Amino acid sequence: MIALPKMPVVARMTVTEFLAWPADPTGRLWQLIDGEPVAMAPASQTHGTIQAAVGAILFNHLRATGSHCRVITAPGIVPRVRADWNVRVPDLAVSCSPDDPTERLLHDPVLVVEILSPSNEAETWSNIWAYTTIPSVQEILVLGSLEISAELLRRGPDGLWPERGLQLHSGDAVQLNSIAATFRLVEFYATTRVQR
Questions:
Q1: Are the C-beta atoms of 30 and 13 separated by less than 8 Å?
Q2: pLDDT tens across 22-53, in order?
Q3: What is the dihedral of CA 134, 105, 15, 20, to 10 degrees?
Q4: pLDDT tens digits for range 89-101
Q5: DSSP letter at 137?
Q6: Is residue 4 part of a domain?
Q7: What's the number of domains the chain is made of?
Q8: Is 77 part of any domain?
Q9: This prediction's pTM
């Protein structure tokens, strides 16, 4: 067995220090949560398949409508609360600002997509509530990975978020006002074996 190099143990770090941190030689993704670097476990095949399908569907919609918005896979997002100590990494996000090849963080997402995995559901919901502090975020789509289901959180006209989002199931449509799109929820699961 080959021993993989270990990332250095660090004390609490800022976002600036985190961005200057050397890349993980194993290719793992890391988040910064309240000043502590936290490795992200590889996604299941189903999770990855859903992520790829949603990314493709959003990309195709944005291209077909001539939108200047773009979909980004696993972007680094800094929440407004405790901004110096947090970089969260959702599965997908959509931004309508121009692409900046020098920028490593996405500052103004309008739509964030997370896929729940049984092994890290609590951590994912912690990230979701952090995304609600970002003024540009209009909607957060949370997809299940064990069944065809979703919860859509949408910021209200008053700027506030609902306590619970709209619950969606297999036969439902997903209306994303942030990008003027409606999709059938089952489209996101088309090549998986997730239960209907």
A1: no
A2: 878 787 889 999 999 998 888 889 999 999 99
A3: 180
A4: 999 999 999 999 9
A5: -
A6: no
A7: 1
A8: yes
A9: 0.90
